[in-house]
Amino acid sequence: MNIARDTALELYRVMGTIRRFEQRAEQLFGENKIWGTIHNYSGQEAVAAGVSAHLRDDDWITSTHRGHGHCIAKRADLGKMFAELLGRETGYCRGRGGSMHIADTSKGNLGANGIVGGGIPIAVGAALTAKQTKTDRVAVSYFGDGGANQGTFHEGLNLAAIWALPVVFVLENNQYAETNPVRDAFAVEDIATRAAGYGMPGVTVNGQDVRETYRAGGEAVARARRGDGPTLLVMDTYRYGGHYYGDPQVYRSKEEIEEWRAKRDPLAIARDWILTEKLASPADFDRIDTEVDAAVERGVKFAEASPPASPITLPEDVYAT
Amino acid sequence: MQLKEAPSATREMFYAEALGDALRQELRRDERVVIFGEDIAAHGGAFQVTAGLLKEFGKDRVKNTPISENGIVGMAVGAALTGLRPVVELMYVDFMGLAMDQIVNQAAQNRFMFGGQARVPMVLRTQGGSGRGNAAQHSKSLEAWVAHVAGLKVVMPSTPADAKGLLAAAIRDDNPVIFIEHKLLYRTKGEVPTGEHVVPLGVADVKREGSDLTIVTWSREVLFSLDAAAKLADEGIAAEVIDVRTLVPLDRETILRSVRKTHRLLVVHEAVKRAGYGAEIASLVAEEAFDDLDAPPKRLAGLETPIPYAQHLEKSVVPQVDDIVHAAKGLVG
Ligand SMILES: Cc1ncc(C[n+]2csc(CCOP(=O)(O)OP(=O)(O)O)c2C)c(N)n1
Ligand SMILES: [Mg+2]
């Protein structure tokens, strides 16, 4: 599949935005402006960028505790994201949710999720809505290798398969669930083989190469949109940071991290590909990088200028009226 | 000749360390004890309670599991029914939601449903509470969920010494025990007996004596209530602080005896007030000691909202020291 210049540069921009957003978030965390925990996505950018590139604003996603990337790739507003991290009234969740619960229903993002595996059946439910209301909308569920060992994975995939629902299951195999390596949590080598047991296609994808994630995501989303049912995509990827920001990471080696960073960085791979195919010049990358930096800075400024969330109005959001 | 009991040696320990000490004590004592949970082996658990246990007891007794709460708890039920004494860790009490069938429909009821043929000697260790910016899915106080279910015991220690002694008792108990720690107590310190230490379930502890009102509380709010009692003392109000330690079984006598002395009851807990366990204690006192009361029993508890993320919002929904002082003065005044 040939990817056109505009698409290629857009994929690069989305990945760059995720990377830069999280660098700034870490800085703000270090300045004690962010409370609680952040789980960074850096290293995995090609997954969300490549798959969500095929989604419209009226398609849905469910996300995870590691949700910044999914949120940005679904075209969220960076200012409202930063405002949420800073506990401001203008944040996506009015300071009630924080990093682990950012949702943007206007763009079909049904939320980051603090419960591992919690989003899987919710995406199936959104796909049920799409089918029931006779639309061609689709749902994508992003979840981790750890999430794949929850009961919700089994129940969700089976439900989606028997009713041929328009949903794509994107399992991000970043090699660890907290400290637990994938080899200790699965007895199968190739996780995608699980799909056969549910009667749906299962594909293993190089999650570091955005061409691959874009291609596989495109096929799975198109299949769902056509009404042909769900797909399981297993994306091999890696998180550069710890499980959470500040994780001492005694369970893996520095060499391993360096190996992935040096040889399998999604931004570097995209740059190489785009330059090699002469889809763009180094100057194009410089321009995009500058624009990304500026967009992120605007977001931080917006958040810092926003008022703190109000405790007075807390009871308002408990029930719908 | 009368033998004087030697005072047992103590050492200052963190709450997390004291829990680990109890696990070590019981793993050594009884080879049927096994522990499993997410990231508990080499890593020592999200709160470092099981640190060092893998090394001493090996991977057959200290096991890491995948993220499969329903399966983990169910496996504990099955192992308990057939002769092991499993201690499982759920990283956050909020994740009980995933395992509720195994806790309520299986563990709690098996013995009764089977006409007394079976026993389910398992402990589910977990931790709850707010105060770390972990937001609504990682900060709840859910003791009322389990206290409501016949067949379960519910333990919530507030000090390192109680943590050790109560965990040991929970492991030795022949029933399923839900043992709920608090995330902000792990780094609190206190003197803990270094030798064998067991605190029986169902015995409350008067953590401070007083004559003007009785504060009944548990878990982290015990610490807040003791701080409040110190402030109240400065204003001439003597608060008695009772740490129930175990919600089920509940030490009714200690509570009633205190209220008969002070004539006033304030129940303080972090969990949401509505249908919270405080209602159980307030109605116990209303039913059994109504004539001794000089004021209606009062509850001070969490606001009826999920726990919000932002630090200032989070504080605003659970009772703080000054809230307790204020409520106590209102009751006495
Ligand atoms: C139901 C549940 N169990 C445990 C946790 C604690 N926890 C948070 S993230 C995580 C690891 C998740 O691993 P994975 O699904 O592979 O996602 P990753 O963190 O690697 O992106 C765990 C155990 C949780 N949040 N929810
Ligand atoms: Mg993972």
The CATH homologous superfamily name of chain A equals Thiamin diphosphate (ThDP)-binding fold, Pyr/PP domains
* CA gyration radius of chain B, whole angstroms: 20 Å
The CATH top-level class label of chain A: Alpha Beta
Helix content of chain A: 40-55%
How much of the sequence lies in strands of chain B comes to: 15-25%
How far from one another are the termini of chain B?
53 Å
Write out the strand line-up for the largest beta sheet of chain B, numbering strands in chain order.
Answer: 3-2-4-5-7-6-12
Number of strands of chain A: 7
- Series of H and E elements of chain B: EHEHEHEHHEHEHEEEEHEEHEHEHH
Short structural summary:
Chain A is of the alpha/beta class and 321 residues long.
Would you give an account of this structure?
The complex is a heterodimer of chains A (321) and B (333). Chain A contains eleven helices and seven strands. In chain A, helix 1 (5-30) packs antiparallel against helix 10 (266-276), helix 2 runs parallel beside helix 8 (210-225) and helix 4 crosses helix 11. The mean pLDDT of chain A is 97. By secondary structure, chain A is an alpha/beta fold. In chain A, the strands form two sheets. Chain A has a five-stranded parallel β-sheet with strand order 1-2-3-7-6, sandwiched between helices. Chain B is of the alpha/beta class. Chain B folds into two domains: 11-193, Thiamin diphosphate (ThDP)-binding fold, Pyr/PP domains (Rossmann fold, 3-Layer(aba) Sandwich); 205-332, Rossmann fold (3-Layer(aba) Sandwich). Chain B is built from twelve helices and 14 strands. Chain B has helices spanning 15-29, 53-57, 69-81, 96-107, 110-113, 143-147, 160-172, 220-234, 252-262, 277-289, 311-316, 321-332, and strands at residues 10-14, 33-37, 62-64, 85-90, 123-128, 153-155, 177-182, 189-193, 205-208, 213-217, 239-243, 246-248, 265-272, 298-302. In chain B, helix 8 (220-234) links the parallel strand 10 and strand 11 (239-243). The complex binds thiamine diphosphate and magnesium ion.
